[in-house]
């Protein structure tokens, strides 16, 4: 309740609760009166105990802690969304015999691993963040090779992709990835781990649009080649994403 009441006050840096003493410590910029007024309005018997100026070091620590908490929350959402969509897309891709959907599902799986690594990197030093980003890049590199190999296998042995399933699942994935892109956008200038996460999310939106286009072409031409082409393109996009991430210097 208290967090909700104070959520709209931009000058608040951090909130620290001591439930046993029924005390709340607020690190903030500017005057304390708007904060006190909000707390009093809750009817919980709140009153201002004391206020003092914080040293610059404390304010910086509070700012860093708030930023890290926001990054962690964002990455947890990204991890959950991508893990769920991996299960949905791999299942649909196998049923629909779609190289494009299978490739996209594997990209989702790699992204989930990347977000897990980035979540680990939050709060660690620049070297740890860069190491996490580079591990993610290696995962993407391995994925790209696997996707291209699967496209080659289907080209040799044939497949009959179901266009409607391709387009439906790819559209759902597109909505999920646009949501991920919006979540990560405010952190894209952060550490290497967050820059890598932004690259993955931006790539995913392009890939989903490609799978939808391929599904339409499969329905129009009756050929499996558009699906194989988009599968190969997904592999190349992932390969380029891995290259960009491995080139990050922090």
Task: Give the overall pLDDT as a whole number.
Answer: 76
CA distance, first residue to last residue: 39 Å
Instruction: Give the proportion of residues in helices.
Output: over 70%
Could you name the CATH class of the largest domain?
Mainly Alpha
- E-strand count: 2
CATH architecture of the largest domain: Up-down Bundle
Which helices and strands appear, and what pairs or packs with what?
Elements (H helix, E strand, L loop, with lengths): L1 H5 L5 E7 L4 E6 L4 H9 L14 H41 L2 H23 L4 H32 L5 H23 L6 H30 L3 H22 L4
Antiparallel strand pairs: 1-2
Helix pairs in contact: 3-4, 3-6, 4-5, 4-7, 4-8, 5-7, 5-8, 6-7, 7-8
What does this structure look like?
With 250 residues, the protein is mainly alpha-helical. The protein has 2 domains: 2-53, no CATH class; 70-246, Alpha-lytic protease prodomain-like (Up-down Bundle), CATH 1.20.1510. The chain has 8 helices and 2 strands. The chain has helices at residues 2-6, 33-41, 56-96, 99-121, 126-157, 163-185, 192-221, 225-246, and strands spanning 12-18, 23-28. A two-stranded antiparallel sheet has the order 1-2. A hairpin with a 4-residue loop joins strand 1 and strand 2. Helix 6 packs antiparallel against helix 7 and helix 7 runs antiparallel to helix 8 (225-246). The model has no long low-confidence stretch (mean pLDDT 76).
Summary?
The chain has two domains: 2-53, no CATH class; 70-246, Alpha-lytic protease prodomain-like.
